[in-house]
Specification:
The chain has 11 helices and 14 strands. The chain has helices spanning 38-45, 66-72, 88-96, 103-116, 132-145, 162-177, 189-195, 213-219, 234-242, 270-283, 298-307, and strands at residues 2-10, 13-22, 26-31, 53-58, 61-62, 73-76, 150-154, 181-185, 198-203, 206-211, 225-230, 253-259, 262-267, 290-293. A 6-stranded mixed β-sheet has the order 6-7-8-3-9-10, sandwiched between helices. Strands 2-1-4-5 form a 4-stranded antiparallel β-sheet, covered by helices on one side. α3 packs across α4 and α4 (103-116) packs across α5. The chain is elongated, with a radius of gyration of 24 Å. The two termini are 17 Å apart.
């Protein structure tokens, strides 16, 4: 999926501006608050709206050709509207008739996708009686029913209970592993970290960063990073870091926070800190049991970017 200098304006209101993207197969998450441009981007990539300027192509198909695009892309929106009295099974079978499939094939496909989203037991119940989570799953079933190569999912985990949420995340991972492109938006950022191959961060209609979370974080060299050190004596570790013994390198530590069996350290140069920390641990100066970044995640990275004023058309 490629966006070449794409902008979308609604009159004088900015939707997205100057978007340059190449989205590969796998799971890509769109991150940003309401109004950042996520839904506009999704509507553009599915051909529901056309850009004010620029070019979009999906699997080599121009987004200006919605009939061809319709057969290759599945879109699960946040909103639903169903024929009155329709059951889950009838809804999907009628939807599949748009693709010109035979009745037996429609039945088989509908049954298969209902099982895949965990709705086989409710297939013959009216959608009007479905819970919020079940309606979310029937929308997902519709997006999957025609076996698309690209799935665009707007907040697909909303309203799902923990067990179904875990099953749905496993489904997304499986689809990504099959070589499909799965593009989803989510406000639950720890889930974004857990399932995404890459992220696209938006603010006020601009892409402010894209890539793997760890890669994006490593580019923020002007921003401090928090590192969690684990050990039985965190106060002793803190003292050694702030007042090393003669001959040991002084580490530039901006902040320290002592907790139970852990020490949270904020530093500016993570690479130099890790090297010096290794030397201290190897010499026995500190009793270190574990080291891990404490803010190497989508939420922290987004906060750094927006806090740095990147929302005005920043670097990608």
């Amino acid at each position: 999926m490629e966006f070449d200098n794409v902008s979308k304006f609604y009159g004088e209101v900015l939707g997205v501006n100057r978007i340059h993207l190449a989205i590969p197969p796998g799971i890509t998450s769109l991150v940003g608050p309401n109004g950042s441009g996520k839904t506009t981007l999704m509507n553009l990539m599915t051909g529901l709206i056309q850009p004010t300027r620029g070019r979009i192509s999906v699997l080599g198909i121009a987004a200006t050709d919605p009939e061809r695009l319709f057969r290759k892309v599945g879109y699960c929106t946040q909103f639903d509207s169903y024929p009155k009295g329709a059951t889950g099974r009838a809804f999907l079978e009628n939807y599949l008739s748009l693709f010109g499939e035979a009745r037996a094939e429609r039945r088989e496909r509908a049954a298969r996708v209902l099982e895949r989203v965990g709705l086989e037991a409710a297939a013959d119940r009216k959608i009007a009686g479905y819970s919020k989570g079940m309606r979310q799953r029937i929308r997902l079933a519709q997006a999957l029913a025609h076996d698309p190569q690209v799935l665009v999912l707007d907040e697909p985990l909303n309203g799902l209970d923990p067990l179904v949420r875990a099953d749905t995340i496993a489904l997304f991972r499986g689809l990504g592993a099959e070589g499909r492109a799965v593009i989803l938006s989510s406000h639950v950022l720890h889930e974004v970290d857990a399932i995404s191959d890459q992220v696209i961060m938006l603010s006020h209609g601009y892409v402010v960063a894209e890539g793997q979370i760890h890669g994006v974080r490593s580019e923020l060299r002007d921003h401090p990073i928090q590192i969690r050190l684990q050990g039985a004596r965190p106060r002793e570790m803190a003292a050694r870091l702030l007042q090393p013994e003669p001959g040991q390198e002084l580490l530039e530590v901006l902040e320290l926070a002592v907790g139970e069996h852990q020490l949270l350290v904020k530093v500016r140069d993570a690479h130099a800190f890790y090297l010096a920390l290794n030397r201290l641990a190897a010499s026995g100066a500190i009793a270190l049991e574990g080291v891990a970044p404490a803010d190497d995640d989508a939420g922290s990275v987004y906060a750094y970017l927006v806090g740095a004023g990147a929302s005005g058309g920043g670097a990608q």
